[in-house]
Design goal:
Elements (H helix, E strand, L loop, with lengths): L1 H18 L2 E2 L8 E7 L20 H12 L7 E4 L8 E2 L2 E2 L1 H7 L1 H5 L3 E4 L16 H10 L16 E4 L5 E5 L20 H12 L5 E5 L24 H12 L4 E4 L5 E6 L19 E6 L27 E9 L2 E9 L5 E9 L4 E5 L2 E2 L4 E5 L9 E4 L2 E2 L1 E6 L2 E5 L7 E8 L8 E9 L3 E6 L2 E2 L4 E7 L7 E4 L2 E2 L1 E7 L5 E7 L7 E8 L4 E8 L1
Parallel strand pairs: 2-3, 3-6, 8-9, 9-10, 10-12, 17-24, 26-33
Antiparallel strand pairs: 1-16, 2-13, 4-5, 7-8, 11-12, 13-14, 14-15, 16-18, 18-22, 19-20, 19-23, 21-22, 23-24, 25-27, 27-31, 28-29, 28-32, 30-31, 32-33
Length: 527
């Protein structure tokens, strides 16, 4: 009975595999790209009697970081800044946006593109007066290099762009969007439904392997004792942030990059970390999106006591220490290296690597034996027939197209999981290797009908993975005449018919089914 249950489960798994989109590590696509993320370059409360706009930016630190970026080899294609450029967006009647842009000119003059996300300090004029719509409008007028593909009215505040090769998708959101002045804003922000709907639509149209989201405030706060840094308890983000994270988790974003809290932290948000606030019905995170909090490249460092384990959340908040992160995309891998320093040299202090399990591939079925036909569906295979290997064994190619390959396993292989390697004929392409992509199964007996019989009776055996080539059936060690041997090429469901041989005594005998891969046995009663 146990064996029968195992076979039933196997059938269900095979049926599911036919329609399953399997997210598998693929090494075939090799777009490379480098960019930098940093946030919060504002000064503290100005001490000068009549501060200039540049005085409202921690210019010495930002200058030092810009020089570090220019010294990188290779240089990044772009920098994403996560908001809070200056102490105020408007101070004594003068906007500070162009002054900050001028500080960043060494990068843009060197051909490094600059993208920005708006922070809460961009919207201030006077302490305690809230957010001002005129600041938002001026921001939109100054940062004209930000794309304008967001929802109407959100131009250059909410937008997306892609890498040159199209394999990385980037989106910037605005958690402080104004339609009028707001005298009592929530500085932890909220994500309106317009942005959530827009982002979901953008992601649905993207086939990129890697996806990144940039925004000013964190979803998960890591300190809560310094009201100036975190006015709300850790984790008490608006519920719209949970809705946002659901989009990121469901679409396997690589990371959520933010600032606002003046320190460094990074954490993979897995199923052990609950959504906060939770939804009803409750959900859990499944796809390990990283929160990269890079919250000061000049702003006064937070002294708040961590409310989470500082080791697990990789918190750094040393006094007078500032940060930027270099992100390197190489095929399916993303490596993030973060640097710390002040106005001199910066040194790498934290690094981590993510492997994104895309592009999407369908392998159906992903289990089989000799004679099994299976398909690999994806994209970019080219039109010239290449090779598909299970381990080192070459499969028979039945059909080859740019988006699908039809194969048949014709070589004898021992049972077990095998890497599937697709060798393309496209010039300059690399092989695509799918780890443990196909499992070779030994034959398995599920049922016998009838379960007993006499010499000369025809018996039917049902099971899985008997193969398309007739193997061998023995009963009590004697070979049996096989009149039927079939296998469904998609599911592996198999049927054999044999005749009970002469020369057997009555009683329980071992029935054995053997093919080139392996064998399975069960009991049969000779009457």
């Amino acid at each position: 009975m146990t064996r029968k249950l195992e076979r039933i489960v196997l059938v269900l798994c095979l049926v599911a595999a036919i329609a399953l989109v399997v997210f598998l590590p693929v090494s075939g696509f090799c777009e490379t790209l480098r960019f930098v993320f940093m946030a919060d370059s504002r000064s503290g409360t100005p001490t000068q009697k009549n501060p200039t706009p540049t005085d409202l930016i921690n210019t010495p630190v930002l200058d030092a970081i810009n020089q570090q970026i220019l010294s990188l080899s290779p240089r990044p294609k772009f920098v994403v800044f996560g908001g809070d450029m200056a102490y105020r967006g408007c101070y004594d009647g003068t906007y500070t946006f162009q002054a900050w842009k001028d500080v960043m000119a060494p990068l843009t003059n060197a051909g490094i593109k600059l993208y920005t996300a708006i922070g809460n300090h961009e919207l201030y004029v006077h302490p305690g007066d809230g957010f001002f719509l005129a600041n938002q409008q001026q921001y939109q007028n100054v940062f004209t290099d930000n794309p304008s593909n967001g929802p109407p009215g959100y131009e250059r505040l909410v937008y997306s762009f892609s890498s040159p090769g199209g394999d990385a998708f980037f989106a910037v959101l605005d958690s402080y969007y104004l339609t009028a002045d707001n005298p009592s804003p929530n500085i932890s922000g909220t994500i309106d439904s317009t942005q959530l709907t827009w982002l979901a639509a953008q992601v649905a149209q993207s086939n990129a392997t890697h996806k990144f989201l940039f925004i000013h405030p964190p979803y998960y706060y890591v300190t809560g004792t310094n009201p100036a840094d975190n006015p709300e308890p850790p984790g008490s983000a608006d519920v719209t942030f949970t809705n946002l994270w659901s989009i990121l988790d469901n679409n396997r974003f690589d990371f959520y990059a933010c600032g606002h809290s003046h320190l460094y932290s990074r954490k993979t948000i897995d199923s052990s970390i609950l959504p906060n606030p939770q939804l009803n019905p409750p959900i859990e995170w499944k796809n390990d999106v990283v929160q990269l909090l890079n919250g000061t490249c000049g702003a006064e460092v937070s002294t708040g006591t961590p409310s989470v384990d500082p080791t697990l959340w990789h918190i750094s908040q040393a006094a007078n220490t500032y940060y930027f992160s270099v992100v390197d995309i190489n095929g399916s891998q993303v490596m993030v290296t973060s640097y710390s320093g002040n106005t001199g040299d910066y040194t790498a202090f934290d690094s981590f690597t993510m492997v994104t399990a895309t592009p999407k591939l369908i392998i159906s079925p992903d289990k089989g034996t000799i004679g099994t036909e299976f398909s690999i569906t994806g994209s970019g295979f080219g039109t010239r027939k290449g090779k598909v290997l299970l381990g080192t064994a070459v499969s028979k190619i039945m059909q080859w197209a740019d988006d699908s390959i039809q194969c048949q396993l014709t070589r004898t292989l021992p049972p077990g999981a095998y890497d599937v390697t697709i060798k393309l004929q496209t010039k300059g392409s690399s092989p695509i290797t799918i780890s443990d992509g196909f499992t070779v199964e030994a034959p398995g007996i599920d049922s016998i009908n009838p379960a007993s019989g006499s010499i000369g009776d025809e018996i039917t055996v049902n099971g899985f993975f008997f193969g398309t080539t007739k193997g061998k059936v023995t009963l009590g060690g004697k070979s049996c005449k096989v009149s039927k041997w079939t296998m469904d090429l998609a599911t592996g469901g198999s049927e054999i018919q044999f005749v009970v041989p002469r020369g057997l005594s009555t009683g329980t005998k071992e029935l054995k089914v053997t093919n080139g891969v392996g064998a399975d046995t069960t009991d049969f009663t000779v009457e």
